[in-house]
């Protein structure tokens, strides 16, 4: 298990997963295991105006909820644990993550065509060039902060390039991503809205320029996209940009750092990958399963219904705890063991398989595959060199710093920033 805390004595009747103390060491897998066995689903009572929610921890239940958007709505009350999420509910309804079909389908179609595995594969050389530069920048020193120097930078540079924002502005993207992640962790919709408004201000100049000179990038795609014969509004463009930036950054970063951490902690698993690039795609699936960096999304029942034989009343909130689904023993034998040779590990890192299933999953897997191919080839002996820190969050499994040392090597790239 990842957590070092002892949760065996916790009273599930009074357990409240909005209490962040359960998440200080990451997802509380011990609690999730007990919930799967003893309280599935689990009713999480809340005080004040918030009505509480059902927590689902079994793979099959999460899948059933996710695949039935007509019964389980994202738009009705948002996708967070309470009405206080990363942004106000009215704003979230304007982002694809918080929409229901048919509006969701129409908006998703704008980007679906860009994120196909086939088109993503054409990005492999660009991604490898970025990874080469990032490793070059640290390899002679024999030390780095893996999170800050590599895991943060890779998805940031990739998504900045795809969106079509100048690489010099990527610090700004990093800060907005962190604000949105922090807003989700602390249930501070005002902070999230503030970040979106800053993004809107920033985009005004870029969209004007791109309208005059369309380019082969996602901002131009958003500007020229039409839904039912109408262009997207400025607000829709801002929110779409915001979700692509946030979803493309934080998650990939957290899988990369959590995945490397698991490899360092389980050296026998790492040795299976050194000199064996063919094993890496499967290992990436196991890292996704192990880290499952997005902890949950919620839905709201549109009518009286049932999940796994359990009645759910109209208006009740249901929460899908993805790391719990990824470690459901019904789906993977010995799920609390990190095993890169596990064949086709079953996980819910990208969601439960419904219409909101991660749009960027092919891109994320490509980035992670190329990154670990290069890490296992060039710096296969990374070791921890200082305290590992994390964001305390019930939404994001996020390391903020992981200092490492390794045998110094030589640069391989041209030295230009990809
Ligand atoms: C390891 C990396 C990633 C993980 C673990 C991840 C995880 C997720 C999850 C759990 C969802 C919600 C699924 C649901 O509600 O059913 C989601 C949605 C989404 N992801 Fe990812 N994601 C990752 C990378 C990316 C990347 C690289 C992009 C590209 C820009 C991206 C774009 C999106 C978008 C746009 C949505 C909303 C889709 C919708 O509502 O239809 N994600 N992702």
Quaternary structure type? single chain
* Molecules bound to protein: protoporphyrin IX containing FE
The total count of helices amounts to 16
Q: What's the rounded overall pLDDT mean? A: 93
CATH H-level name... which superfamily? Answer: Cytochrome P450
GO molecular function, one term: steroid hydroxylase activity
GO biological process, one term: cholesterol catabolic process
Family: Belongs to the cytochrome P450 family.
Protein name: Cytochrome P450
Task: Give a description of the structure.
Strands 1-2-10-7-3 form a 5-stranded mixed β-sheet. Strands 4-14-11 form a 3-stranded antiparallel β-sheet. By secondary structure, the protein is of the alpha+beta class. A hairpin with an 8-residue loop joins strand 12 (389-390) and strand 13 (399-401). The chain has one domain (20-405): Orthogonal Bundle (Cytochrome p450), CATH 1.10.630.10. Helix 6 packs antiparallel against helix 8 (153-163), helix 9 packs antiparallel against helix 10 and helix 10 (189-212) packs across helix 12. The protein has 16 helices and 14 strands. 45% of the residues are buried. The protein starts with 28 loop residues before the first helix and ends in a 13-residue tail after the last strand. The structure holds protoporphyrin IX containing FE.
Notable features of this structure?
418 residues; Cytochrome p450; 14 strands; alpha+beta; binds protoporphyrin IX containing FE; 3-stranded antiparallel β-sheet; globular; 16 helices
């Amino acid at each position: 298990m990842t957590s070092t805390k002892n949760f065996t004595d916790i009273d599930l009747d009074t357990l409240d997963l909005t209490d962040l103390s359960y998440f200080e060491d990451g997802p509380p897998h011990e609690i999730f295991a007990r919930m799967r066995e003893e309280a599935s689903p689990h009713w999480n009572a809340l005080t004040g105006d918030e009505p509480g929610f059902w927590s689902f921890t079994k793979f099959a239940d999460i899948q059933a909820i996710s695949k039935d958007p007509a019964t389980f709505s994202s738009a009705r009350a948002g996708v967070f644990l309470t009405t206080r999420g990363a942004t106000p509910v009215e704003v979230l309804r304007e982002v694809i993550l918080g929409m229901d079909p048919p509006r969701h389908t129409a908006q998703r179609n704008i980007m679906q065509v860009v994120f196909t595995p086939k088109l993503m594969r054409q990005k492999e050389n660009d991604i490898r060039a970025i990874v080469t530069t990032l490793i070059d920048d640290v390899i002679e020193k024999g030390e780095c902060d893996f999170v800050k120097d590599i895991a943060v930078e890779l998805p940031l540079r990739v998504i900045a390039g795809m969106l079509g924002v100048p690489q010099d502005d990527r610090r700004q993207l990093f800060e907005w991503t962190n604000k949105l992640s922090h807003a989700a962790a602390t249930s501070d919709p005002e902070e999230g809205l503030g970040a979106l408004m800053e993004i809107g201000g920033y985009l005004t100049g870029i969209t004007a320029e791109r309208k005059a000179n369309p380019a082969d990038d996602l901002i131009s795609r958003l500007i020229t996209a039409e839904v039912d014969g109408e262009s997207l509004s400025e607000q829709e463009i801002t929110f779409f940009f915001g979700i692509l930036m946030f979803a493309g950054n934080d998650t990939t970063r957290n899988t990369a750092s959590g995945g490397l951490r698991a490899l360092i902690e389980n050296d026998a698993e790492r040795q299976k990958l050194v000199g064996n690039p063919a094993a890496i795609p499967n290992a990436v699936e196991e890292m996704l399963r192990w880290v499952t960096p997005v902890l949950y999304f919620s839905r709201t029942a549109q009518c009286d219904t049932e999940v796994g034989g359990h009645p759910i009343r109209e208006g009740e909130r249901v929460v899908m705890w993805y790391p719990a689904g990824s470690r459901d023993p019904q789906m993977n034998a010995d799920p609390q063991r990190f095993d890169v040779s596990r064949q086709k590990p079953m996980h819910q890192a990208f969601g439960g398989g419904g219409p909101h299933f991660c749009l960027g999953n092919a891109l994320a897997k490509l980035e992670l595959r190329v990154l670990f191919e290069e890490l296992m080839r060039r710096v296969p002996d990374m070791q921890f060199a200082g305290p590992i820190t994390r964001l305390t969050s019930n939404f994001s499994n996020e390391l903020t710093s992981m200092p490492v040392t390794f045998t110094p090597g030589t640069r391989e790239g041209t030295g230009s920033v990809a």
